[in-house]
C-alpha cells in the first residue's frame, strides 16, 4: 500500500472495502463490520495490496445471533434474519424470519419502546424452537406513541378479501350499507316534513356518499384527493373509554339505525340546540316520562301548543290541576264557551244546566297565581359560530 494506513502508520494496511450484495451511488446494502469481528479477506486479481472484506465469520467470542435475546442453536435453527446491537449498549434492532413448520412468521422490531410489527403465526420468543402462541395475523405494537397517516384516505374494515384478492380499497359492502343508510334517512326525514315536522338535511350525507363511491387509489383520479376515513365492521363494533368521549363535526352528524337508536345516561342527558329541536315518531307514539321529580315544559318566547286527533287528557292522582292565565277560554265545537278573566262569561245557543245537591251563593272572591319568570335579562356575552374549510 502507498502511504500511511488506517491507523496513521505505514505498518497498517490501506482502507479495505467491504463487499456487499448491492452497491450504487448513495444506495445499496450497508453492513459495516464492527471492531472485534472476524472477517474473511480476499485479494482482487490475487494482489495482496487490493484486499476486500468478502464476509464476516462467527467464532467462539461471537456466536450466532440470538433473536429477541432468547434461545440459541440448534434449538432455534428455523429462525433466520438480521439482528444488530446498540453501540455502547445492549439493545437490538432485528428482522426475524421464522420458518417453523405450520407456524411461519416475520418480525420487524426495535427494542426501543419495544416497538414491533409482527406478521403471521405469532408466538412468544422461541426457546429451543418452542414459543407460546400469541395469535395469528398482524400486530403493530409499541410502548410509546403510534400514528397512522394516509393523505388519500384510510379504510379499516373486517370484510374479508381472502388470500389478498381484490383491490386496495374494495368496499362494496360498505357502499351498500351506506346506500341503505341514506335511503332510510331520507325516507323518514321526508315523511316528517310532510306531516308537520322538519325534513332532514340530506346534503351533507349525500356529499360524503358520493365522494365515498368515487374514492380510488392513486393520484390520477378525482377520488384520490378526498382524504376519507371509512370504518366497516361486519360483526359489530365497540368504542369505549373510562373517560370523556368527544364527537365533533364541522357540519352535520347523521346517526341512523335500521332498528333502535338508544341513548342512556347514568346521570343527566342534556340535549341543546341553537336553532330549534324536533322529535317526530312515525308510529307507536312518543312518550316523555319523569320517573321521579317534576316535568317542566316551557315556551319562553312563544306559544305552547298541544294538538291531538282523538282527545287530550290531563289528570293527577294527588293535589290539583292548576291552570292560570290572564284570560282563559274554553270553547266547544258548537260554539258554547266559558271565558274567565275580567269576570266569568258563559255563552251558548243551548241550555245551561247546573246540577248539584245544593247551591251556595256568597260575595266577591278571587285567588292569586304566581307568574313564571324566564329570566329575560339583556345578554352580556355573544357567541360566534364559524367553521373554516381546509
TrEMBL record:
Residues of the Putative type VI secretion system Rhs element associated Vgr domain: 85-192
Source domain of life: Bacteria
Residue span, Gp5/Type VI secretion system Vgr protein OB-fold domain: 16-57
SUPFAM superfamilies associated with the record: gp5 N-terminal domain-like (SSF69255)
One Pfam family matching this protein: T6SS_Vgr
Domain DUF2345: 222-365
UniProt name for this protein: Rhs element Vgr protein
Organism (species): Burkholderia pseudomallei 1710a
